[in-house]
Amino acid sequence: MRHQNSVFHDLLKLIDWPVFERLVHEQGSDELARSFTSRNHLIALLFCQFEGAHSLRAVEASMASHRARLYHVGAKVPPRSTLADANKARSSKPFSNLFEHMLAKANRAVRRKLDDEVRLIDSTSLHLAGAGTNWARFSTDVCGAKAHVIYDPDAGCPVYHAVTPANVNDITPAQTMPVEAGATYVFDLGYYDYAWWAKLDEAGCRIVTRFKTNTPLNAAREMPVPPGSGVLSDRIGFLPGRQAKSRKNPMRDAVREVTVMTDTGKMLRILTNDLDAPADEIADLYKRRWQIELFFRLIKQTLRITHFMGRSENAVRIQIAVALVAYLILHMLQQITKVKHGFLELVRLVRTNLMHRKSARNLLEIQRPPQQDSRQLDLNWATS
Question: Where are the domains of the chain?
Fold first, then answer.
């Protein structure tokens, strides 16, 4: 009988293992490892993500029940203590660098002109509790972390991530994020910093964000608004010379304010440094910011970033990096198969069939039962 790999085996084939081994070697992550290598570590954490395990005990028990089939993918069933020690002590860089490599590989198929690239920036809070969370202490009783993400809404995947304690302002990690010259950056009030805006502006980036209610637009000049448009007003002017009465504003060029009314009746003042694009286009760009909120909701529903198997800073960084790798693997599978299933349905199918011996490509080809003719249904009812 012809051998058939499991779905999990097929998913692991989407990882460039030679690159991962090189990244591990560069960081020296396996120098002190006796038997549980970085490869074993990554496979165990990916199994956790795809299978939906919530704890170290669940990972150990579930992997032990599939020991024979996991042997064929080079996996080892780790004791809880071994996996906990690896999460705490092993460098997170090979895992986060693997995500960056896979992202570059995935983006080649959807690369567009740089002028058309849109980047959404936001963060999501992650609750932490228990021993080992002092690094992320927010208050006397609460500990938490933040995942900061740059998201590509056209490719449908993140392009950068960083992890900080929850009490770090969003603008702090944003100042060290990579800037793609010429791209469009869309973000909310958490990134209200004139100096950072000036940095983006100098790189030729288009900025779309919100005005604070108390920020005036000086020397404003009214622009015509197209009839029938959802735009209330369109003005060009200058930002105040200082921010928060102390910091000098380095952004001296003119900016634009587009005022719109939301479906809920709330008025929004949208700020941009693009003085030429139609006002409706600027409003639509800011509206796309909602897609990163949907992304955060999706990964919290489908991947393990709400239940952490380790509470140390290193363990949290590793688990978030591997969760994003798992997301890319599922995203790549969706692109390869070209089957029009939703992401949630894809996750359910993978989770249900993870260790079954079947092709991951055929997994999405669901054969729906043929629909009966309505007249036959009436006949069946009449004769019942």
Answer: 7-95+319-363, 114-121+147-295
